[in-house]
Amino acid sequence: SQTIHQWPATLVQPVGSPLSLECTVEGTSNPNLYWYRQAAGRGLQLLFYSVGIGQISSEVPQNLSASRPQDRQFILSSKKLLLSDSGFYLCAWSVGTGGFEKLFFGSGTQLSVL
Amino acid sequence: GQNIDQPTEMTATEGAIVQINCTYQTSGFNGLFWYQQHAGEAPTFLSYNVLDGLEEKGRFSSFLSRSKGYSYLLLKELQMKDSASYLCAVMDSNYQLIWGAGTKLIIKP
Description:
A: mainly beta, 7-stranded mixed beta sheet, globular, B: mainly beta, 5-stranded antiparallel beta sheet
């Protein structure tokens, strides 16, 4: 069966510090991978998605970046965090293209930038 | 612009029925999804509608009217564990998911 691991669960970082969130998927090959951010009272915001190794699409210009060094590994990074980067970050995977594409989410990382 | 509207919060009684509405305005339509999200946890898939009509899955049903840009999620025989946020999302013509802000459902005994 497929599983998705995301860590850490919670993170408190000072403004200006770097960030690295990691996500790995097991039990499937060549998944589509996603990073979302969820702010209180707002819909999920797609940050990055990847359809293959080294292929990253950015949806929102910001000080975050993503990398996919291996087929089932997706990393979200920042060189210098801003207060506005606080939020609940979710990694997700899916298979298939177009139409019905069910997302499977990781357990999320609650990031607080102080 | 693209927009998904759903009520911010609803309250219902254990054992009752509740209907959560979702209206959308998107660039094209390739399906509508409902996800359940308990506080502090990840969303989990509930249902998918791409054709008009009602899809029933146990206590949960989802309805779609494409001509009206409208869907609802119907929860029957409510249980305390149904207390959660319910997220509506529409896949647009570019196969991008547009998400609503979610409806927080509070179940009272």
